[in-house]
Design a protein that fits this description.
This protein is mostly helical. It is 67% helix and 0% strand. It has one domain. InterPro entries: FtsL/DivIC.
Length: 104
């Protein structure tokens, strides 16, 4: 019986291989049906990249103004107030959480 199927064996193997490749082309990780999901992921990643670029430019500008050769007193005072938690003379700073390290 096996002798009668022997001529068809290469054709069957090729058909199975072709079917597997077609299924992977349509439904695989980089398949045709997953292209829309990849496009959405790309758009989200591009928006995140643009946001990070803007943040980096802002930080670079702040760092440039805080260097000793090009010091901006206003920016230095603003950063000191933020870090130390002080406000202007006519402002009040109200902390809503107790610093646990100060009690120790």
């Amino acid at each position: 019986m096996f002798l009668h199927l022997r001529p068809y064996l290469p054709t069957a193997v090729l058909a199975i291989l072709l079917a597997y490749c077609c299924v992977q082309f349509l439904t695989g990780d980089k398949g045709l049906f997953s292209q829309e999901g990849r496009q959405k992921d790309l758009m989200v990643a591009e928006k995140n990249l643009a946001k990070l670029k803007n943040e980096r430019q802002d930080l670079e500008a702040r760092a440039r103004y805080l260097r000793t050769d090009n010091l901006s007193r206003d920016l230095l005072e603003e950063r000191a107030r933020v870090i130390l938690g002080f406000g202007e003379a006519n402002e009040y700073v109200i902390r809503d959480q107790i610093d646990k390290s100060a009690n120790s």
